[in-house]
Design a protein that fits this description.
There is one protein chain. The protein is of the alpha+beta class and about 450 residues long. The protein has 3 domains: about 5-145, Aminopeptidase; about 170-325, Aminopeptidase (3-Layer(aba) Sandwich), CATH 3.40.630.30; about 335-430, Nonspecific Lipid-transfer Protein, Chain A (2-Layer Sandwich), CATH 3.30.1050.10. The chain contains 11 helices and 21 strands. It has a 9-stranded mixed sheet with strand order 1-2-3-4-5-6-7-16-8, sandwiched between helices. A 7-stranded mixed sheet has the order 10-11-12-13-14-9-15. It has a 5-stranded mixed sheet with strand order 19-18-17-20-21. Strand 6 (about 110-120), helix 3 (about 125-140) and strand 7 form a beta-alpha-beta unit. Helix 1 packs across helix 2 (about 55-65) and helix 4 crosses helix 5. The longest helix is centred in the first third of the chain and has 15 residues, at about 125-140. Bound molecules: coenzyme A. Coenzyme A binds near residues 46, 116 and 159.
């Protein structure tokens, strides 16, 4: 029952049933702060979080404002007596800019989308479709080459052109007396006060973001979250502990924050809250530390890389149990030329291929010749009759970072080879400059 009539003025538009309003997030004391607070409560409701207290609302609003998040709130035009008031949104949506490491010389500014909720009593009225298509149009007009999101359900966003581009593994590592590395890690690890992470975590993360394709620059909520200072309900989470890894020169090149799950959890378990390593040595060093904590027999980590060096560093790789493989970053190409020219290519990737892309929203629709040489690409418009590969825009998003093999997508029937050998060429051209991994959720 989508309302067909739509009128739009500035950041506000209406249908017969709903008012759609987009406004910048505002911190306490600023204009619009009340709307931001109501939006935050609706967002928390959508994700089944607790109702937020004042401290939590203030901190969250400040974070959103510092991120320059644009919030969309949808209000019903006919609230019922005693129902949540007309000032409480029935749907939420947010977007903001952060960069993504796409393997190129510099990270690519991307349009990130977050906080999508529609109240159960208003679902399937076309509200998500309306918020998403309006927002992607604005992002395209603003010149973004890509949009991205992380998702709670994997069946919703392909229709809007998003494809899963990075993956994480949820792992459990047994850390009893069998845990040993084949070669001791270099550097050393020390416990730190978790509060140190308020300033340390963004610095270390910047080093990770520089070197890791698939990484998304973090928003302002992160330091509070990974240090435990901004725990559930705005309270400090005092279960969080932290350690830093120091390289041979004494410089910090990684950290881990973690919590003990309690004496009643058997085997006794540490859960990693955040693990950021700027080098392979730091990654292994932090695992060596986690594996050495006394009275602990198991470590859980929900954002391990798909190609995990730990597996090859352990004397017994079977100590790692992968509980789940989870799609993480979903990418949407809005401008094929800008996206693929910004991307990095390996030094030995050379050649060309013509892609024919279908895009229901139109932004990436067309045929494109991708020419790669000397670590760079040039993209030109081509004729559909020259197409060597045919694919939908969501598949283009999945392929973009090089974290998914084109041959696998072809085998899945999602990448159609018109010219024999084209899939193999695309594999060579899109090989990532380093293993693809992201550890930012938004
Ligand atoms: C998922 C959610 C946002 C959908 O909102 P909605 O307003 O009901 O969606 P719409 O009516 O605009 O539907 C848009 C399209 O998505 C489809 N869709 C909606 N929810 C879907 C779901 N859970 N699974 C698969 N498809 C879904 C609809 O069938 C529709 O398809 P079409 O336009 O191609 O015909 C809403 O149900 C919700 O808030 N769920 C809980 C929070 C959540 O999961 N948020 C997503 C965070 S990433």
């Amino acid at each position: 029952m989508t309302s067909p009539v739509s009128r739009s003025v500035g950041g506000m538009s209406t249908t017969d049933d709903y008012v759609f309003r987009t406004f910048p997030a505002r911190a306490p004391g600023e204009d619009q702060h009340d709307a931001t607070r109501a939006w935050l409560q609706a967002d928390a409701q959508g994700f089944h979080d607790s109702r937020l207290g004042d401290a939590s609302l203030d901190r969250s609003a400040t974070n959103l404002a510092n991120d320059h998040q644009q919030l969309t709130a949808v209000y019903t035009t006919s609230p019922r007596p005693s129902a949540l008031g007309a000032d409480v949104p029935v749907a939420t949506f947010a977007s903001f800019e952060r960069s993504i490491n796409v393997g190129g010389a510099v990270p690519l500014p991307a349009h990130l989308i977050s906080s999508i909720t529609v109240r159960p009593t208003h679902r399937r009225h076309g509200i998500l479709r309306r918020m998403m298509t309006d927002d992607l149009r604005s992002a395209h007009e603003a010149g973004y080459a890509v949009a991205a999101l992380t998702v709670t359900e994997a069946t919703i966003y392909r229709r809007f052109g998003f494809g899963p581009a990075t993956t994480v593994h949820e792992v459990t590592v047994t850390t009893d007396q069998r845990f040993r590395l084949l070669t001791p890690a270099s550097g050393h690890t020390e416990l730190i006060d978790p509060a140190t992470l308020l300033t340390l975590s963004p610095e270390v993360f910047a080093g990770f973001h520089r070197v890791r394709p698939g990484s998304v620059d973090r928003h302002h909520r992160y330091p509070g979250r990974v240090s435990g200072l901004d725990g559930p309900n705005g309270e400090e989470d005092r279960t969080v502990r932290a350690a830093a890894h120091y390289d041979e020169s004494g410089a910090i090149d990684g950290y881990v924050s973690y919590r003990f799950l309690g004496w009643d959890t058997r085997p006794h378990t540490l859960e990693v809250v955040d693990l950021v390593a700027t080098t392979d040595a730091a990654y292994l060093g932090l695992w060596e530390f986690l594996g050495s904590v006394d009275l602990i027999e198991r470590v859980r980590y929900d954002a391990a890389p798909a190609d995990d060096p730990l597996r090859w560093a352990l004397v017994d790789p079977r100590l790692i149990e992968t509980r789940d493989v989870v799609d993480w970053l979903w990418m949407r190409v809005l401008d094929v030329r800008a996206a693929f020219e910004a991307r990095g290519y390996t030094a030995d990737a050379a050649g060309e291929v013509v892609l024919s892309v279908t895009d229901a929203l139109g932004y990436a629709q067309g045929a494109f010749r991708l020419r790669v040489a000397d670590g760079r690409a040039v993209v030109e418009a081509a004729d559909r009759s020259q197409a060597e590969l045919e694919l939908d825009v969501w598949v283009l998003g999945t392929l973009y970072l090089g974290g998914v093999d084109p041959a696998v997508l072809a085998a899945a029937g999602q990448l159609h080879e018109v010219a024999p050998g084209a899939v193999s060429r695309l594999r060579t051209l899109l090989r990532p400059v380093a293993p693809v991994h992201g550890i930012t959720h938004f």
